[in-house]
């Protein structure tokens, strides 16, 4: 046979406010759904009855409730909290006769509406003292078991408290080590950072000095180029002013090729060889070819003869 489950609770009957009853519920290992036994006593008298598995299923069908849901309500009403206002009990007759059977009904109260979950017929026990003794023995055993369980829980709680203190101390130690390590790393980081900053400043200063030197050199080249350019312009203007004459304006349009009998270049031409402009050179060449001019005047006698 499987191990039986036993529970004891006190209950109050509204029709008997001055009376106290104790209800013992014994069920199989599989729970109340497979049947259970009840023992009701007021300390002097006792009544006993049982509920079969078929009766449990019949009550569930009559209430049109799923069997699992009905068993949950049955568990709550027979073994649940004693001060619950969701369930109530009634005895018939009330008060019961010590030598006659009584009917114990249990109801569920929901939104000020109560409906009966079930009832059981309890027969009077011929020897109520034995039933009360068994009830007391069960209470003592249950109390001893709870005390042992409570002692184990206290030991476990003490062990966990010590473990908690040890872990807290370790965490504090780790936190201190972490702060010390962070401080050391931060100091090292500051040193490295300052070195990098100094290196960056040095490189920036070097770059600035190189840029300034480059800019200065570039400015010198620009000034030198401007000076050379201005000197070249002055030489060109000088050559143009000395070479050009009022009578030579028409001669500049003449062909650039020199006649075969042109005289040799003068020393002035040799001193102006560095001038890159071509136009003043042509003018100088035409300026030194006055020899053909007498040949232009030769037709004058012919014109005079014709007039004659």
From TrEMBL:
What are the start and end residues of every segment in region (Disordered)? 211-308
GO cellular component terms, A-Z: DNA ligase IV complex; DNA-dependent protein kinase-DNA ligase 4 complex
The annotated regions of Basic and acidic residues compositional bias extend over 214-232
From which domain of life does this come?
Answer: Eukaryota
Nucleus as a keyword?
Answer: yes
Pfam families assigned: XRCC4, XRCC4_C, XRCC4_CC
Q: Which residues form the XRCC4 C-terminal domain?
A: 233-306
Q: Origin organism of this chain? A: Tetraodon nigroviridis (Spotted green pufferfish)
List the taxonomic lineage.
Answer: Eukaryota, Metazoa, Chordata, Craniata, Vertebrata
Record's protein name: X-ray repair complementing defective repair in Chinese hamster cells 4
Q: Where is this protein found?
A: Nucleus
Compositional bias, Acidic residues, is annotated for 233-248
The principal location of this protein is nucleus
Question: Which family would the database say this protein is a member of?
Answer: Belongs to the XRCC4-XLF family. XRCC4 subfamily.
